[in-house]
Design a protein that fits this description.
Blueprint: H1 16-48, H2 60-71, H3 76-86
Helix pairs in contact: 2-3
Length: 87
């Protein structure tokens, strides 16, 4: 149990630098976890923000309105008023 490398548990390999590396690894782990949570929250907020185009595919009427505006069938005022009605 007590080896020639300083004795104690683990034969001396569990000295100060090992615990330092373990602490650094935990710091990196928690840092990456926090960054991932922040990115997920920002992505969720971007999908729910008013005026975002994330929900266009789910609303075929708004998609058709955008297509008509892009083709030039509607001017800006007509587009804006029709879009407000659809909301």
């Amino acid at each position: 149990m007590f080896g020639p490398m300083g004795g104690g548990w683990g034969g001396g390999w569990m000295n100060g630098w090992w615990f330092g590396l373990h602490g650094l690894g935990m710091l990196v782990f928690w840092g990456l976890l926090i960054v991932a949570i922040i990115l997920l929250v920002r992505a969720a907020q971007g999908r729910m923000a008013p005026g975002s185009t994330a929900g266009v595919a789910a609303d075929p009427a708004l998609a058709t309105l955008r297509e008509r505006f892009a083709r030039g069938e509607l001017n800006r005022d007509e587009f804006e008023s029709m879009r407000e009605v659809l909301r």
